[in-house]
Design brief:
single chain; Alpha-Beta Plaits; 4-stranded antiparallel β-sheet; 6 helices; globular
């Protein structure tokens, strides 16, 4: 088994994170209120800001900023755990191994998550674009029409044009793959 290690810096860098449902089950969209409550629950326990986010049907991309980067695993664990104990049992997998059950897994999320420490402003902007491009990548839904992302907030703040994600934008973003 691989020995995964998280890299923690002492500087104040945002972190791009992707976490995915077990077997990529499409359960997040219909349970978005539970996921939102899970984020609120984690924010009551830890200090962090969400720079950008997109919740898809079976995974979530976000950029998280915290002064205590070593708490990111706890933040993600808290979000996943709170979601798992509040979701209807119809969405929980019954095909868990004995070792997964002993670890306290609920059959909702993949065990690990992907993280990437944002290195500089260019890296940050690429990841924000990638997050907002995801509704088009997976469902061919324009970012302005995907209601489970921070895209429209970025439009309101003047970061994007409402019809962003033209062919040039898509070509540049397709070079990136953070899943």
């Amino acid at each position: 088994m691989s020995n995964y290690k998280r890299y923690f810096k002492t500087s104040h860098n945002p972190v791009f994170i992707t976490f995915v449902t077990l077997d990529r089950k499409n359960i997040l969209e219909q349970n978005i209120d539970i996921l939102r409550e899970s984020f609120k629950y984690a924010k009551n326990k830890f200090e962090f800001d969400i720079i950008a986010i997109s919740v898809l049907k079976n995974h979530c991309h976000l950029i998280l900023l915290t002064d205590k980067i070593e708490e990111i695993p706890k933040i993600i664990r808290t979000i996943k755990f709170n979601f798992s104990i509040n979701i209807s049992s119809e969405y929980i997998s019954n095909d868990l191994s004995l070792s997964a059950i002993k670890r306290g897994e609920k059959g909702v999320w993949q065990r690990r998550y992907y993280d990437h420490i944002i290195r500089d402003e260019d890296d940050l902007f690429k990841h924000i674009d990638y997050i907002h491009y995801n509704s088009w990548k997976h469902y061919k839904i324009a970012p302005k029409d995907w209601k489970f992302s921070s895209f429209n907030k970025y439009v309101k703040d003047g970061f994007y044009e409402r019809d962003w994600c033209n062919f040039d934008d898509k070509y540049n973003i397709k070079q990136l793959d953070y899943e």
